[in-house]
Amino acid sequence: VLIIYRLPGLDPDFVMAEKGGNRGRVPLSYLEII
After folding, report:
1. Are 7 and 18 in contact (CB under 8 A)?
2. What is the pTM of this model?
3. Torsion of CA 11, 9, 31, 3, to 10 degrees
């Protein structure tokens, strides 16, 4: 399960993604690929 959410004040080109306890910033262009 991949959880994607935005954080206020974060770069609009990035979202936060969380999968299996791993969390990190992911560029939107990467998400459009998958």
Report:
1. no
2. 0.58
3. 160
